[in-house]
């Protein structure tokens, strides 16, 4: 399984907490089994102008024991990032999180509606995927025998998720209104 992992397991860059203007990079690699923490001092003060960028490099095992580096990472990137890096260094990989959005959407489209609702509550990424028009278009297509051009146009206006949860009678009424609007626009534009 580890061979499926890319060389760079995790990378994040960011600016330090205010009032700092310093930039930081955190990199966790697989083959070198290292945690690399880099920083660039940004200051108008003359004593810091000649400061060169810095780097701290630990193996995964060394990082797990390096409380000073752990505190710095928690201050700059937050406790959640520190926990995630800890998991990576301990060999706990989240393979599901590494799948592409298109592959996850394909998997999610086979779930029951209740499971999609539960999955959407697990993370921001899954919430975004579970609300996406691309997912709901797949779900609508799997439920309908065919999708007419009028239905597709209406779905693009109102969103595929909204279309899925709208009853058939209301959809027919909205399609009729849409056709009437288009007919009146055509007649007004010679």
Provide an overview of this structure.
- With 190 residues, this protein is α+β, with helices and mostly antiparallel strands.
- It has two domains: 86 residues, no CATH class; 91 residues, Monooxygenase (Up-down Bundle), CATH 1.20.1280.
- It is 52% helix and 15% strand.
- It has ten helices and four strands; from the N terminus they run E-E-E-E-H-H-H-H-H-H-H-H-H-H.
- Helix 2 packs across helix 3.
- The protein starts with 7 loop residues before the first strand and ends with a helix.
Give the strand order, joined by hyphens, for the main sheet.
1-2-3-4
**Low-confidence parts, pLDDT < 50 over ≥5 residues?**
none
Strand content is 5-15%
Which radius of gyration do the C-alpha atoms yield? 25 Å
Coarse structural class: alpha+beta
Number of domains: 2
Question: SSE order in H/E notation?
Answer: EEEEHHHHHHHHHH
Helical content class: 40-55%
- CATH topology of the largest domain: the name is Monooxygenase
The DSSP helix count reads 10
Domain F-box: 93-139
Organism: Crocuta crocuta
GO biological process, one term: SCF-dependent proteasomal ubiquitin-dependent protein catabolic process
InterPro entries: F-box-like_dom_sf, F-box_dom, SCF_F-box/WD-repeat
